[in-house]
Amino acid sequence: MRPLKITMSAFGPYAKDCTLNLSELGTSGLYLITGPTGSGKTSIFDGITYALYGEASGEIRDSSMLRSNYADATTQTFVELEFLVREKVYKIKRIPEYLKPKQRGEGFTTQSMQVELTLPDGTIIDKKNLVQEKINEILGVNKDQFCNICMIAQGEFLKLLNAETKERIKIFRNIFKTEKYLSLQDKLSEIAKAIYLDYKDKEKSINQYISGIIPPYSPILQEGLEQAKQNEMLTEQVVSLLERILLETNNLLKENKENLAKKETELQKVATTLSNLQDKQTKLSELEKTKILLQEKTEVLNSLKARKTEQEKLIPTAEGKEKQVVEINLSLDSYTLLDGLEKEIFTLQRD
Known about the structure:
By secondary structure, the chain is an alpha+beta fold. The protein contains ten helices and eight strands. The protein has helices spanning 41-53, 128-139, 143-149, 157-162, 165-176, 179-211, 219-229, 235-313, 322-330, 332-350; strands at 2-9, 18-21, 78-85, 88-95, 98-101, 108-111, 114-118, 124-125. The strands form two sheets. A six-stranded antiparallel sheet has the order 2-1-3-4-7-8. Strands 5-6 form a two-stranded antiparallel ribbon. The protein starts with a strand and ends with a helix.
């Protein structure tokens, strides 16, 4: 904002109209107002600040006290300011509340506060609240901020220098209209935070997978895996290491499959041999039983043969030995059994 012209009437030390054409001071640099104490320097600040914000620039000044004590009772108190913002000219006029003589009769009446803001397109705003909102919108700063950065009166620049960092940032942001960059910064910060959290989650997941890897025995692979677990390797190096571990694992798996196939073949042969041995063992067991049975039956046969021989010796040559004939007839069943045993022995010997 650059003030172009200010007119103060019955304001502060100025008893009559006083107009300062500030546009004659040029369009660049700073305006320096100097003079001895009491010469009215601060009143110029008060006039500009009051015109814009309805308040004086000082902390102990009240707008009701701004009417000049030296002014004629009939002289109206007001401040009118023309100023330039972004190559557009605005004009604002304020009349403070003060006591003035009655037009009829004796005594005084109260002059109500009035304000009128003329926009570059000629639009006039005369509502106090609307005017103040528009001024804040045009300048981008409130009254306190304006006094700190535009109207540096009697060392008050120290207020800006000594202000909290957050307050200075807020002031400069309003001056230079950087709110959109702050929004962008906040948005980028949120995105960066989300990306970082996602990165940490993925890093944790990867570390969990890495900690569970058991590579084939190899000093080089073991050393590389330890480095990966300690986050001492780049992502590309970890991927390369995992590819080597996968290759070694696949080779080892292939070798194990081949060995397993050989072992299965050998096992099948052993199983076949064992089955044959079990069959032979069964046959041997059966043969042993047959031998025992053969021996038993042979003993019975030999006994029967011996008995037959004895009985043949006892066969009477005379017809009168009936008792011996009966015994011989009774022995016929044994002879039949003997024939059966001889056949069984023959069959067993043949098998």
